[in-house]
C-alpha cells in the first residue's frame, strides 16, 4: 500500500511539472505559408493595463538617508526629512511605516498641494549598543512607495557616574 501511494504521488508530481500554461503570446506578426509563398499578416497588440503603466514620480525628497553618527545609549534622537509634491495633482501620505518598534515616524495626514513641501519626523530610540540602519517606507498616491533610511552607531554609556574627585574636597577645605 505504501508503494502504491508513493508511486501515485510521484506520478502526480510528474504531471504537475509538465503541465502547460496558457501564457499570452507576444508575437507581433504571424507568418502564414500557403503554396510555398510566405505572407505576413499583422496581429493586434493588446494595450498594457492602466495599472501596470509607470506612474510619474510625485514626491521629491531633499535627502533619502541620514547618518546620526555616534550617539549615546539611552538617548532618543530625531531627524526631519523634507519633501516636495512635484506631481500634477495634490496627494496625502497614505502611510509611513518603520521596519521596527525602535523607529517612530510622524507625519501630517493633510493633503499636500502641487508644489508644496511637507515633512516627516523620524525618531530612533537608541537602547541597543552597536551600529544601526533602519529603513522607513513612505506610501502615497495609493500604491507608490519611497524609502528613507536612518543610520548611525550607538555607544554604551557608563553604568555609574564619574568617580568622586578628592581634589575638589581639598579646594573646598582651603577656603
Compile the SSE list and pairings.
Blueprint lengths: L1 H16 L11 E6 L2 E6 L16 E3 L3 E8 L4 E9 L7 E6 L4 E5 L9 E8 L5 E11 L3 E12 L10 H9 L1
Parallel strand pairs: 4-10
Antiparallel strand pairs: 1-2, 3-5, 5-8, 6-9, 7-8, 9-10
Shape: flat
Beta strand count: 10
- Name the helix and strand elements from N-terminus to C-terminus, one letter apiece: HEEEEEEEEEEH
Strand order of the largest sheet: 3-5-8-7
On the 0 to 100 scale, the average pLDDT is: 77
Name the helicity range: 10-25%
Strand content: 35-45%
Number of helices, counting only DSSP H or I runs of 4 residues or more: 2
Question: How far do the termini sit from each other?
Answer: 102 Å
As a whole number of angstroms, the C-alpha radius of gyration is: 31 Å
Query: Largest sheet at a glance?
Result: 4 strands, antiparallel
Helix/strand/pairing category: mainly beta
Q: Which residues form runs of ≥5 with pLDDT under 50?
A: 20-54
Please describe what this structure looks like.
The protein has 175 residues and is mainly beta. It has two helices and ten strands, in the order αββββββββββα. It has helices at 2-17, 166-174; strands spanning 29-34, 37-42, 59-61, 65-72, 77-85, 93-98, 103-107, 117-124, 130-140, 144-155. It has a four-stranded antiparallel beta sheet, with no helix packed on it. A hairpin with a 3-residue loop joins strand 9 (130-140) and strand 10. The chain starts with a helix and ends with a helix.
Q: Characteristics of this structure?
A:
single chain, 175 residues, mainly beta, four-stranded mixed sheet, flat
Amino acid at each position: 500500500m505504501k508503494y502504491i501511494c508513493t508511486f501515485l504521488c510521484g506520478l502526480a508530481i510528474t504531471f504537475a511539472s509538465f503541465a502547460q500554461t496558457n501564457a499570452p503570446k507576444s508575437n507581433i506578426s504571424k507568418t502564414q505559408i500557403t503554396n510555398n509563398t510566405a505572407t505576413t499578416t499583422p496581429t493586434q497588440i493588446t494595450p498594457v493595463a492602466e495599472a501596470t503603466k509607470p506612474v510619474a514620480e510625485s514626491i521629491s525628497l531633499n535627502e533619502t538617508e541620514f547618518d546620526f553618527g555616534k550617539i549615546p545609549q539611552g538617548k532618543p534622537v530625531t531627524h526631519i526629512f523634507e519633501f516636495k509634491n512635484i506631481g500634477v495633482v495634490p496627494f496625502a501620505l497614505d502611510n509611513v511605516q518603520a521596519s521596527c518598534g525602535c523607529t517612530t515616524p510622524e507625519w501630517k495626514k493633510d493633503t499636500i498641494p502641487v508644489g508644496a513641501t511637507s515633512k516627516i519626523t523620524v525618531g530612533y530610540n537608541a537602547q541597543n549598543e552597536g551600529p544601526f540602519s533602519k529603513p522607513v517606507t513612505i506610501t502615497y498616491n495609493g500604491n507608490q512607495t519611497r524609502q528613507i533610511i536612518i543610520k548611525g552607531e550607538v555607544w554604551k554609556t557608563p553604568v555609574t557616574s564619574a568617580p568622586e574627585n578628592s581634589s575638589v574636597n581639598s579646594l573646598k577645605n582651603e577656603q
